[in-house]
Design goal:
about 140 residues, about 40% strand, PhnB-like, Glyas_Fos-R_dOase_dom, Glyas_Bleomycin-R_OHBP_Dase
C-alpha cells in the first residue's frame, strides 16, 4: 500500500450519520469501527461512538472521520486533521520527524492498542497531523 494523504474530520458524536451521508453522496466502501470494536476501557456512553471511519470511493477519494475522543474538545471549524498513512515505516517516520519538529506532539508516534504505530501532532504553522503506520497483516 502506498502512503496516502487525506482529510480526517472530527465530529461531535454524529460521525456515523455524517460518514453514511458522505457515502450516499460519493459512493464507495465505508468501514466504521466503534470504541467497543477496538477494545480497551470505554464508558457505555462512548462504546458505540465511531473511533475510526474510512470512506474509499471508486473515484479514488478517501475521507476519514471519527467522533471526538472522550476528554477532548470538539471545535467546529477546527475539527479536521491531515492524515498520512501507509506501510512504509521509514517514509512515514521521516514525515513525522519533520512535521513534529518545532511543533507540539499530542500523541507520541508509538504502537497503539489497535496494533498500528500512530501519532498526532500540530506543526509549527498550527496544522493538525495524524501519522499511522499500518502493521503488516502478513
Amino acid at each position: 500500500m502506498a502512503s496516502r494523504l487525506n482529510p480526517y474530520i472530527s465530529f461531535a458524536g454524529n460521525a456515523r450519520e455524517a460518514m453514511e451521508f458522505y457515502k450516499s453522496v460519493l459512493g464507495g466502501n465505508l468501514r466504521l469501527n466503534t470504541y467497543a470494536d477496538i477494545g480497551g476501557e470505554t464508558s457505555p456512553d462512548d462504546a458505540d461512538k465511531i473511533m475510526h471511519g474510512m470512506l474509499e470511493t471508486e473515484r479514488g477519494f478517501t475521507l476519514m472521520g471519527a467522533d471526538t475522543p472522550p476528554g477532548m474538545e470538539h471545535k467546529p471549524g477546527n475539527n479536521f486533521s491531515i492524515s498520512l498513512s501507509g506501510e512504509d515505516a521509514g517514509e512515514l517516520r521521516g514525515y513525522w520527524d519533520k512535521l513534529s519538529a518545532d511543533g507540539t506532539v499530542n500523541v507520541p508516534l508509538e504502537k497503539q492498542m489497535w496494533g498500528d504505530t500512530f501519532g498526532m501532532c500540530v506543526d509549527r504553522f498550527g496544522i493538525s497531523w495524524m501519522v499511522n503506520i499500518n502493521e503488516s497483516q502478513g
